[in-house]
Amino acid sequence: xxxxASLDRSTRIYVGWIIVLGVLIIPATWYYRPVNLIRWExxxxxxxxxxxxxxxxxxxxxxxxxxxxLLVATGLLFPGxxxxxxxxxxxxDGRRPGKETSWWGFLFNNANAAIAYGLPSFLVTxxxxxxxxxxxxxxRTTVLTLAVICINFPLTARLVGGATGTSMxxxxxxxxxxxxxxxxMIMGYVGGALVLLLDHQLEGAVMALSLFGVLIAIRGNMADxxxxxxxxxxxxxxxxEALDARDPYTESHSQxxxxxxxxxxxxxxxxxxxxxxxxxxxxxxxxxxxGVRDDILNKSEHLTDExxxxxKRHPDIGADMIxxxxxxxxxxxxxxxxxxxxxxxxxxxxxxGDEIPLGSRIIAVADSFDTVxxxxxxxxxxxxxxxxxxxxxxxxxxxxxxxxxxALRQLHAQPLLPMPAxxxxxxxxxxxxxxxxxxxxxxxxLLLGTTISSLGDxxxxxxxxxxxxxxxxxxxxxxxxxxxxxxxxxxVSGAAGALPDRVKRAPLIVILELLRAAMLIATPFxxxxxxxxxxxxxxxxxxxxxxxxxxxxxxAALPELVEPREIGPANAGLSxxxxxxxxxxxxxxxxxxxxxxxxxxxxxxDGLTFLVAGLLIFGLGDLGGGVKRAGIWSGLSRTWAVxxxxxxxxxxxxxxxxxxxxxPTLITLAYAFAHGSQVDxxxxxxxxxxxxxxxxxxxxxxxxxxxxxxxxRTVAEGLALTGVLSLGIAVSPWIWLVGVFLLxxxxxxPIYSVGNVTALMEASDSSNxxxxxxxxxxxxxxxxxxxxxxxxxxxxxxxxxxTYGVLGGGLLCLALVTAFLSRERPALVSQAGSxxx
Length: 837
Description:
Layout: H1 9-32, H2 40-53, E1 57-59, E2 62-64, H3 68-77, H4 81-89, H5 103-124, H6 136-164, H7 168-175, H8 178-198, H9 201-246, H10 253-267, H11 272-284, H12 294-297, H13 305-311, H14 314-323, H15 332-336, H16 358-372, H17 385-394, H18 402-411, H19 433-439, H20 441-472, H21 475-495, H22 499-502, H23 505-530, H24 536-557, H25 567-596, H26 600-617, H27 635-640, H28 643-660, H29 662-674, H30 681-704, H31 712-731, H32 735-763, H33 769-798, H34 800-823, H35 826-836
Antiparallel strand pairs: 1-2
Helix pairs in contact: 1-4, 1-5, 1-6, 2-3, 2-4, 3-4, 3-5, 3-8, 4-5, 5-6, 6-7, 6-8, 8-9, 10-11, 10-16, 10-18, 11-16, 16-17, 20-21, 20-25, 20-26, 21-24, 21-33, 23-24, 23-26, 24-33, 25-30, 25-32, 28-32, 28-33, 28-34, 29-30, 29-33, 29-34, 30-32, 31-32, 31-34, 33-34
């Protein structure tokens, strides 16, 4: 375990918070549900938990203990403080803290268990049982086990990610699969069965010992299998090392090939598991040479034809040896193909191109690079590193995959070879959002914080609307909540738009998120104390004003977390995550109201989302900003001074105007089609909203895979797609066809908006990006409101379908203008392409 001081600052703070929360969970839950500590069942389960921890399964990278059934049973019988105390007192696994393991790791593991089992077990006691008490234990066991999975694994993954420099998402994906979750669920149900046995007093306690016997048997089998796997792998590694030792010229060659292959895999954005397979295959790639005679292996002259045929067998010999080991079977094809050539001239099978496994192509480059850059018995001289890179490059497309050669060139800071985009070259075209989550842990935290924040936004919307209408019963008061938020957004974005550039963005975002959290958590108490509905309006104004600063600051911070070529996919990921979380937020709001019978808890829930979002941003490091020459009140003037941003801002404003026309149009369209049909307007409107949301999510995914996202051409494509399909809505005679057209049309919205935002980011720099994002935010808010107003007027005159025709025609005209502008600036596009390549 690493020393605590060697962890980065944010990880140290995270560990400290978890330990503190793990301690606080005991008094916090004890206050509401005191625990009788002298119950024999608690002592029985505590002893069983300690025994299970003292009998861990030892793996090559750590230990695994089977305590889930015991802790689940403890949580069901002694929820909250009871199971948390057991987790703290039974955490000793035989390794002495401070000597064989670190104190911080010991405390973190205990605190993690106390939180993961203590908090959900306490909340589960308040879970309503809709189908009678007969379902109480199965339902609570299921919910508790799922909650433990959702808390324990992310808490652990955050620590592992911080310690290893990978993202939490990547750590979860690589280490938590279906098998892990299935095993946890089974163990949870065993815990439920243990509760039933303990209900039968002494005889149940005796019979429960049989469950311990089953767990001990499982542990023994798993430990034996793990030990055999370790021993077989060690045998193969020793064989490879012995092979290197036979030739002084190839000493440590296998290990160097393994390391370089892993680096190439990382450059090609492969997953962590694939990189580990590459590393293993690289270490064992020449294992088959153990079957080649020494006189052939160490011959300094050219091999005869017969000797060469013997040498060519070594990939098959090595792969066959590895394939006999079930745990390494996936590595065998990589070893078998590492001497295949891109043009089909290699051996042993003469494969060509994509027929060769990607891992084999990577090892081929790593093997050849190490060969030409180190001295050999048949060639005492060696090339320099850059000479070796150029030697490999000269054979790209003949012997080696050009994509892998580009990865090698990238590692050595050499210009990349031009090539068409292919699915296997994500590092040289666009990285998808999932790839970014794996490879950019800071971006993953920003996206997670934004998603959690977006999840909470609908809660405040629902809570404020319900609160206002419940007291006033006046639709005009409901409309006033939207007006207040719009006015705050426009005023702050326009007047103080330079704030994300003037102030350091990281502390600015954290402070404002925590301020929002405090305001929202206090809101229910303020409303209950005053009983005055007007109190909610200044709160909404302040929340919208803060959002008008935080959102542009987040957007401006994004380029600080990814490479320039990754800005487009990152923007697309934020758009999709925000949309999905926003839709889910309304569902969560409904569930909270149903469970608590009060809308006021929604304010608290949203406050907690902002609290979590702020803590996720804390410790991200420098996100830009802090430009002293940026006047706080000079937002729009500073933005207009950036010549390259002007056109993109005008396009953003015009596009938002036409799209804003659809806001009042959609609901009137639903009621128009409901007239004379058997389906009422609200249900049709709900379906159309679902189609709209689905299309936006689909468009966000599509734009993330497009090339040259931040160009006028991409913006024009999105506008044209929405415009053409809007014209289709205008002439459609059937509501089902309207739904299909709306689904496809809404996919164009994120293509246009993500393309436009990405273009503005590329047109700006760290000193003015926040100002430009704030100005875009203000401009689009104003034009959306103007578009909605004009749309209502056009609906009154011409009807909803004709209004869709008007906005569709407007978007098509705007798309044509944008496409013309993209053709007028080829030099700029070409230059941007060369810089990102």
